[in-house]
């Protein structure tokens, strides 16, 4: 099985290569630290499976890179290997075409099994990720109020708290309260992640 590594940390890539060195049925055929190089090299090396981190150097993150890789002719399967396990990250990766989602604190044996499983066409999820997806199905995230949607749209425009307060005629303290509620409802912890989650859930559209 031909394996390609995509991670922005050289030490991580070296560690992964060392881990697989003794696996006789797996050959590392290339690696990349950013999405553009990954797509270009994967098209040339034609691996069977790609290990994909979500945070990469350059203009594309791991989800965007996964989508581009899966759009290649006879594309390889993608196994996400990351430290991030928010609902938004998981859903975005699966929507982009990832066949598996594994956390970096998984033991080596679990990683080996996941790579081989994805290579066989299976869907592989680490237990914490599977649990989050099940929770997401059973208990959908609460809806945003019209005021919260308005604030998310302003976040998407790049507005700061002071500007948002001025435009919707409230205090900055009120804006901060709304933001805390938005973050909780969208299961995120940053402004950028809130906008991304709202777009992914089709709550807002970016022109």
From TrEMBL:
Show where the HTH luxR-type domain sits: 137-202
Q: Which Gene3D superfamilies match?
A: 3.40.50.2300
- What one GO molecular function would you report for this record? DNA binding
Q: Which residues carry this modification: 4-aspartylphosphate?
A: 53
> What's in the keyword line of the UniProt record?
DNA-binding, Phosphoprotein, Transcription, Transcription regulation
Name all Response regulatory domain ranges. 2-119
A single Gene Ontology biological process assigned to it is: phosphorelay signal transduction system
Q: Which SUPFAM superfamilies match?
A: C-terminal effector domain of the bipartite response regulators, CheY-like
Q: Superkingdom of this entry's organism?
A: Bacteria
Q: What InterPro entries does UniProt report for this protein, alphabetically?
A: CheY-like_superfamily (IPR011006), NreC/VraR/RcsB-like_REC (IPR058245), Sig_transdc_resp-reg_C-effctor (IPR016032), Sig_transdc_resp-reg_receiver (IPR001789), Tscrpt_reg_LuxR_C (IPR000792), WalR-like (IPR039420)
Q: List, alphabetically, the PANTHER family matched.
A: TRANSCRIPTIONAL REGULATORY PROTEIN NARL-RELATED, TWO-COMPONENT RESPONSE REGULATOR
The protein depicted here goes by the name DNA-binding NarL/FixJ family response regulator
- The protein's organism comes out as Nocardiopsis composta
What lineage does the source organism belong to? Bacteria, Bacillati, Actinomycetota, Actinomycetes, Streptosporangiales
């Amino acid at each position: 099985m031909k394996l390609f590594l995509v991670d922005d940390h050289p030490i991580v890539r070296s560690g992964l290569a060392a881990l697989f060195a003794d696996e006789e049925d797996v050959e590392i055929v290339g690696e990349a630290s950013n999405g553009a190089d990954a797509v270009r090299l994967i098209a040339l090396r034609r691996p069977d499976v790609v290990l994909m981190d979500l945070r990469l150097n350059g203009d594309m993150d791991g989800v965007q890179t996964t989508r581009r890789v899966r759009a290649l002719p006879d594309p390889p399967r993608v196994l996400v290997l990351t430290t991030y396990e928010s609902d938004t990250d998981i859903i975005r990766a699966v929507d982009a075409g990832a066949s598996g989602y594994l956390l970096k604190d998984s033991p080596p044996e679990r990683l080996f099994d996941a790579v081989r499983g994805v290579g066989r066409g299976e869907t592989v999820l680490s237990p914490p990720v599977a649990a989050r997806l099940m929770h997401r199905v059973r208990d959908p995230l609460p809806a945003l109020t019209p005021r919260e949607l308005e604030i998310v749209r302003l976040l998407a425009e790049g507005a700061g708290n002071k500007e948002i307060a001025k435009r919707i005629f409230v205090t900055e303290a009120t804006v901060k309260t709304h933001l805390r509620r938005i973050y909780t409802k969208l299961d995120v912890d940053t402004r950028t992640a809130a906008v991304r989650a709202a777009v992914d859930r089709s709550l807002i559209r970016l022109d």
